Amino acid sequence: MDQRSKNKLKRKMRKIKKINFIRRIVQLVCFFLLPGLFIQIYTSTKALVMALVNSSFSLQANLLDLAVVLSVYPLTLLLGRFFCGWVCAMGSIGDLLTAIRNGLKIKELKMEGSAGQKLKAVKYILLLFAIIFIWVLQIIAIPQGINPLDAFGVLVSLNNWDLLLSTFLVATILLAAILVLSFFVPRFFCRYLCPTGAILSLLSLPRMLTIKKPRENCRNCTLCTQNCPMAIPLYKTDKSRSGECIECGQCVIGCPMDNCHMQLAGKDLNTKTIGTIAATTIVGLNYIGTISANAVAFESTQTLTMDASQSATASSTKYQDGSYPGTAPGFQGQITVDVTVANGLITAIDEVSNEDTPEFFNRCWNTVTGEIIQSQTTDVDAVSGATYSSQGIMDAVAAALYGQTGTTAAIGESADSILAESKTIDSSSTASSQKSSMSSDAAALFTDGTYEGSGSGLRGETLVEVTVQAGKITAISEISKQDDDQFFYRAWDTVTEEIIAAQSIEVDAVSGATYSSNSIMEAVAAALDLTFENPNSSLQGGHGRP
Ligand code: SF4
Ligand code: SF4
Ligand code: SF4
Q: What residue ranges are annotated as transmembrane (predicted)?
């Protein structure tokens, strides 16, 4: 190599280092600002689709989900996956592992050829599976503790890592396997598994930005292909707009002929400038969106509080007036709240302390507390993407109201009569079981006897026998069913116990076993001659009652 070529190569290496340095800094900042955003994009998309499918979409309830997806999707649609190349924490960890492997001079595990390209389809298949069976049909739910992304959430929170070896042990093992593979294969998770990446890949297809490498000046050295962390076969083409491209710019800065360019409307773009602007836009939009959504939710909480106070005189007393602390575990640690009861109603819930990841806790605080105040019950929906924190808040409020901590007893009229009998609060009883006790003290509702009824499940008829004694439902037994065991028995105990506890068929379906849940409720309703509109009936054209 002559001196001129050596100097050119040195200049090139300096340029590569400078651009890579800037991208690494942007990735590092984004890692600390929004470590869980790639999970939120998935959960928010899922929440929005499910809300539309279930006809439960509301601007107020889904505002945070909209804020999350709007911070990333429009930019991806216009310019491509800058989120993946510059912002995503999981992608950054993949890049870090590749850098460590390169530093150790360990060879990359090449996934070349058509087999490697075909493997990329796995993430689209996973996404399709999730859309059909989890989002739309809602007949499968991922069991808690096995999702590697939950383990990732604990890992990047830099807190309570002991959970990784207990609650999330299986998830941790899966995450470890992904990280080991990511060490040997650049961006392994992004290339082959990430459902968020699959969504962004499809969204980025119509973008205006392209990678160009005209043949005239190309030496066919294939360095651009070798440098591509997503293994896009750039050598085959002189222009690429692949959905797999994460706009990292490695092909551009690695070309020895300066022949590879990122272009928008025929104009060359400076990779580090466009990348930094795109990342800043995503982070900015996300912060503005989530802060605004939380502010709107807070406003509505205030309105609900006022409504609750104003309607107090018209409602029967449910709780004793006072201010009560309650504590319960969230995702990362304890959540402590202070619940104010005025005129027999919950009028305010204040946060005393919480050890949860702020990103997840803040995501659900206003919504969950607002719904508790509105419905005057702790049995409200968890916020998608912040399930553990949501449940922690509900449990903490329940602990305050029902005295699970043993420090309070904010229970009103009907519960007081139960307390008078037992003289004590059973510290192991849950809020829901106390509600059940209250319901079962109701006057006789049904005529004594044994009745049969049928309902429509996913695969056919569910037949049950309902026993009524002293005017109350005392037993529900299965006569026959055609739904799969896996789903039917997932729903059976919960649904029948809740029906008996509430003395009502208006109970919640079990997530992941909705059709079987509905069939059980309909069968009990049919046995008791009650009206129940089963959404499953449309599946099979309904059925006649006995
Ligand atoms: S593909 Fe998934 S994990 Fe990879 S960078 Fe994109 S969102 Fe993040
Ligand atoms: S084509 Fe270029 S910009 Fe796109 S992922 Fe590959 S190296 Fe990065
Ligand atoms: S790195 Fe540059 S010269 Fe080499 S194949 Fe790619 S575009 Fe051509």
A: 75-100, 121-143, 163-185
- Are 387 and 414 found together in one domain? yes
Ligand 3 atom with minimal separation from the 260 CA: 7
Q: Which residues pair with 350 in a beta bridge?
A: 338
Q: Using most ligand atoms within 8 A of CB, pick from 260, 262, 263, 268 the residue to mutate for ligand 3.
A: 260
CA distance 305 to 34: 32
Cβ-in-10-Å burial (0-12, 13-18, 19+) of 4 comes to exposed
| Residue of the CA atom closest to atom 1 of ligand 2 | 245
Each residue's pLDDT expressed in tens, for the chain with a length of 546 residues: 566 666 666 666 666 666 688 999 999 999 999 988 998 899 889 989 988 988 878 887 788 889 999 999 999 999 999 999 999 999 999 999 999 999 999 999 988 778 888 999 999 999 999 999 988 988 887 877 888 988 888 787 776 788 788 878 999 999 999 999 999 999 999 999 999 999 999 999 999 999 999 988 898 888 999 999 999 999 888 999 999 999 999 999 889 888 999 999 889 999 999 999 999 999 999 999 988 887 776 666 555 555 545 544 444 456 788 888 888 877 767 788 888 888 788 888 888 888 777 767 877 887 888 888 877 888 887 776 677 788 889 988 888 887 633 333 344 333 333 333 332 233 333 333 333 333 333 345 788 888 999 988 776 789 999 988 878 888 898 888 877 776 777 788 888 888 888 888 888 887 666 778 889 999 999 998 888 887 765 444 332 222
Q: Ligand 3, from 16, 222, 236, 262: best to mutate by most atoms within 8 Å of Cβ?
A: 222
Pocket of ligand 1 (CB under 6 A): 38, 84, 88, 90-91, 189-190, 194, 196-197
Residues 198 and 320 in one domain: no
Q: Specify the number of domains making up the chain.
A: 3
Tell me if 529 is assigned to some domain.
yes
Q: Is there a domain that residue 171 lies in? A: no
Which bound ligand lies closest to the C-alpha atom of 152?
1
Q: Is residue 159 part of a domain?
A: no
* CATH number of domain containing 432: 3.90.1010
Pair 446, 472: CB distance under 8 Å:
yes
Which domain covers residue 343, as residue numbers? 312-440
Tell me: do 435 and 480 sit in the same domain.
Answer: no
Is residue 219 located within the same domain as residue 251?
A: yes
Ligand 2, CB within 6 Å, residue ranges: 211, 227-228, 230, 232, 234, 240, 245-251
Same domain for 435 and 457?
no
Give strand pairing partners of 267: 264
